[in-house]
Amino acid sequence: MLENSSKYILHIAEWFPNSEDPQLGIFIVKHIQAIQAIHQCLTIVIEADKDLNQAFIIEKHNHLGLDILKGTYKQYTKWQKIRNRWNYWRLLFHIMKKLETSPSAIHVHVPRRSTLLVSYFSKIWNCPYIISEHWHGWLNKSYRPSIVRKSFFKRANRITAVSKTLAISIQEKTTANVKIVPNIVPEIKVKEQKVTKKKIIVVADLVDNTKNITGILTAFKTFQIDHKDWQLDIIGDGPDGYKIKGFVIDNEIKGVQFLGRLPNDSVLALYEGYDFLISFSNFETFGLTLAEALAAGIPVIATKCGGPEAFINENNGILVNPGDEKALTAAMKAMTRKKDSYTVQSLQRSVAQFQAPAVQNAFRNLYSDLVDIE
After folding, report:
1. Which of 355, 365, 44 is nearest to 187 (CA)?
2. In this structure, is residue 190 part of a structural domain?
3. CA atoms of 255 and 218, how far apart (whole Å)
4. Does residue 31 sit within a domain?
């Protein structure tokens, strides 16, 4: 039996950092850490492993300060999606059924495959369930949630979204009530410095149809005509990694360096070594890397794509329209002139409302009439 001796909030995190992607769902980790400071928590994480030589394994451990029940199931080829989904459901059901005590509430983060089981156990345990949504797909005008998903959202006791734009989109597509609880941005100690490094940073998954990395590279090549000694570093990886690296080679773009995936702490420590950060996404529900860069005292260039325009303005960066590569090039040139006009203090103040105490208080209010909060 899986032990847990007292009332707790059960979190189900469908995105979570792992050995292949240490940045995956780091914003979910920070939310759970904030909640854990006011109530005992247990987090279930399910992963797939094609090399596993048994049906599944379950491990209990502490990771990033969180009590984790990690289940790993054997993953089959991509042609066996139904079998993999069944293995996910079977493993999650097994873990939830074996819990010795029922939770005070279930909090599911980015619900996808877990929705049916969350609904089922919420009824069995007679406890509320809360949804926290981060997924950019809600911002796509063509996305229409299924009847099952609509019902799941409408029956939730609470729903949170990380930005006003995301909240409005969910409300319009489900008629559910959504509250805004933003991502957590850490406090970062940096030096007040005006030294030009001639270095630009991008931190993103290499998924080109959402992050538009090739658009950044195209704009950077044009930018280099008058700024030949500038460097562009890209942190991250993903399914389009080979394609994007090939794009650099095929278009003979100089000064680009791919640093791969790095843990969040390492990324936070690197920001102040750059002049500014670029995000050229087609969709962003919040824009955590933008907020982190500001917390580290460097300005940003971002797109008006959902989340960033809620906190990016002329006082901390430059906004352009998604896909407008000419505007991005112009913004890069303008930023080389403007970057020294921003102070570290003013940039950090622009994201102070996203620090842990404020977000923790938002969760305290969210839970107040659902569970006993410390």
Report:
1. 355
2. no
3. 13
4. yes
- Where in the sequence is the domain holding 64, given as residue range(s)? 9-184+355-367
Residue 209 token pair: 């149809």
| Angle, vertex CA 183, rays to CA 180 and CA 189, nearest 5 | 140
Contact between residue 155 and residue 175 where contact means Cβ atoms under 8 Å apart: no
Could you please report the per-residue DSSP string of 284-323? BSS-HHHHHHHHTT--EEEE-SBSGGGT--TTTEEEE-TT
Question: Which CATH number belongs to the domain containing residue 247 in this structure?
Answer: 3.40.50.2000
Which strands form 199-203's sheet, in the order they lie side by side? 256-260, 231-235, 199-203, 276-278, 300-303, 317-320
Going from the first residue of the chain to its last (374 residues), give the mean pLDDT of each consecutive group of 10, the final group possibly shorter: 66 92 94 94 94 91 92 85 90 95 96 96 97 95 94 97 97 96 94 80 97 98 96 97 98 97 95 96 97 97 96 97 98 96 95 96 93 76
DSSP string for residues in 31-91: HHHHHHTTS-EEEEEEEEETT-SSSEEEEEEEETTEEEEEEEEE---GGGHHHHHHHHHHH
Question: Do residues 345 and 360 both lie within one domain?
Answer: no
Q: State the pTM of this model.
A: 0.92
